[in-house]
Amino acid sequence: MIAQLKDPRKLKQHITQAVCQMYRQVSNNPNLGFHFPVGKKALLAVGYPKQLIDKLPGSATESFAGVGYHFQTDVIKPGMRVLDIGFGSGTDLLIASKLVGPAGQVVGIDITDAMIEKAKKAIASNGFGNTYVLKAEADKLPFTAGTFDVVISNGVINLVLNKRKAFSEIFRVLKKGGILSFADIVLGKSISEESRQNPKLWAECVVGAMLEEQYLNLIKNAGFKNTQIVQSLDYFTNSSSENTREVAKQYQAHTAVIKAVKP
Fold first, then answer.
1. Band of the pLDDT at 8, cuts 50, 70, 90?
2. Average pLDDT, the chain
């Protein structure tokens, strides 16, 4: 199978299937037990303030699977238009909605149907009229150029096969002076190409990640300026899986909260 998956199209298809299967389970059975922290435990572990979590609907927070607290960059202001790439159950969507207020708008994209439906229910039941979601891929954003003031994401781009295209698309849909503010998994040591050909390992959030320096260069090469790592976090120490902790340690996998600006 690994030899067959050297075809980028087949590899992308299998990665998408593996990721959707994993996060369908996170959506439908958040208490099942996963190799990464989920729900309020995960929110607190990566730095979300408890008072903020308590204001959000449980249906959104119970399936949270992000890797960092990118809102610490404090870039979202009232009246802005914000795009959330890979919104999951909607935790960050709803936080962003409160920050932009009724004069702003928040749009979310995701590829997992179960997460999309869960987020839609949370949005509808809590009266967030400035927020909507749709099914779309990070490397094929269905928006015109210069649509958004801020793009956020949380532990998602490491799951995208064509990261170069994803950052190019984010750059395209941001306005001049727009900001990319997000959290993702990066590495300190390289992973073998054979491991990268295994779709199941992509859903583990380590194999799809890149070396930190290479990752930052992708962002810069997309056209962003003032790229900076706001925080580094030992995310995988919170994993309940000894194997996941060991793999993460082997490759020095960690969270980077990153901010970059479109000139």
1. low
2. 89
Residues 6+ away with beta carbon under 8 Å from 251? 187, 188, 189, 190, 191, 206, 209
Residue 6 confidence (pLDDT): 56
Tally Cβ neighbours within 10 Å of residue 127: 9
Do residues 190 and 234 touch, judged by C-beta distance below 8 A? no
Residue-wise burial string across 45-82, b where 16 or more C-beta atoms lie within 10 A, e elsewhere: bbbbeeeebeebbebbbbbbbbbbbbbbbebbeeebbb
Strand partners, 150: 82, 179
Instruction: Please state, in angstroms and as integers, the Cα–Cα distance from residue 234 to each residue in 49, 50, 68, 241, 253, following that order.
Output: 18, 20, 10, 15, 8
Site of tokens 């959030």 = 205
Would you kindly state where each structural domain of the chain is located, as residue ranges?
Answer: 4-261
Least confident of 44-53, 64-73, 92-101, 203-212: 203-212
Sign of CA dihedral 69, 72, 78, 79: negative
* Stated pTM of the model: 0.90
Tokens of 149: 């003031």
């479109």: which residue's tokens? 262
Q: What is the pLDDT of residue 31?
A: 81
Closest CA to 38 of 69, 73, 2, 66: 66
Please state which CATH class domain 4-261 belongs to: alpha beta
Residues 202 and 5 sit within 8 Å (Cβ to Cβ): no
Instruction: Find, among 46, 79, 75, the residue nearest to 226 by Cα.
Output: 75
